[in-house]
Write a structure and sequence with these properties.
Elements: H1 2-28, H2 34-45, H3 56-83, H4 99-120, H5 125-144, H6 151-169, H7 176-195, H8 201-221
Length: 222
């Protein structure tokens, strides 16, 4: 009897750990944070990918600006929509709740992309990053009207794909360990979406393929 109880407790503990890790990875790799992560990595690990040199202060300011316009501002809009009862949840798990937030994010991304093209040209790493993210949001916006594709897996694999091309273009051992950690987290967030039962396997796989396709198209061909 005691052994059965212990076994049950172990299963419960295992589930709680998986549940915690799934929610943690879902928050850490939320698609809205991907542009911020990419900007920070490019500016601090791959400055040679930029056409101009940034001072340390300028790097932090650039990361802060991108965080404000691609993460904080869209989240404020989601919060307002939730308070106005236009959407039902803050996590946008329902497909119907995603239209307005995704449209707003798309407008923010387009604005930033146009600014970067005018400021630095269209072929540097920061601009290409925003082009990839903008195209991704556009595709997801269209697809979501008909089917609930996994935005987390799309954003995560797009993120990883862009990092792969950066490492290939500018070989450096300083980013090897962070890349391995990010790879594990990306795999983890895809599994997390399945564990939390917010997406089917097909939705996660299609999200992964979309992220890889967009990241490869933009960074390989441009």
């Amino acid at each position: 009897m005691q052994n059965k109880k212990t076994e049950s407790e172990k299963k419960t503990l295992s589930f709680l750990i998986k549940d915690f890790l799934s929610h943690f990875l879902t928050i850490v790799l939320i698609p809205l944070l991907v542009p911020t992560y990419l900007f920070a990595i490019i500016l601090f690990y791959y400055p040679e990918a930029m056409p101009v040199a940034f001072t340390e202060k300028e790097k932090w300011m650039a990361v802060l600006y991108i965080f404000a316009f691609t993460t904080i501002l869209p989240f404020i809009v989601v919060f307002i929509l939730y308070k106005l009862k236009i959407i039902s949840t803050l996590d946008l798990e329902k497909r119907e709740d995603r239209l307005i937030p995704q449209l707003f994010s798309l407008l923010c991304y387009i604005s930033i992309t146009i600014f970067l093209i005018n400021k630095f040209s269209s072929t540097n790493a920061l601009t290409l990053t925003m082009i990839a993210n903008t195209v991704s949001v556009l595709f997801i916006l269209v697809i979501t009207q008909f089917w609930k594709i996994s935005t987390h897996s799309s954003g995560a694999l797009g993120f990883l794909t862009i990092l792969y091309f950066l490492m290939h273009k500018f070989p450096s051992t300083s980013f090897s360990t962070p890349f391995i950690i990010i790879t594990i987290m990306v795999i983890g967030v895809c599994l997390a979406r399945l564990h939390l039962k917010v997406h089917t396997l097909g939705q996660v796989i299609c999200g992964c393929l979309l992220g890889i396709a967009i990241g490869t198209s933009v960074f390989y061909f441009l």
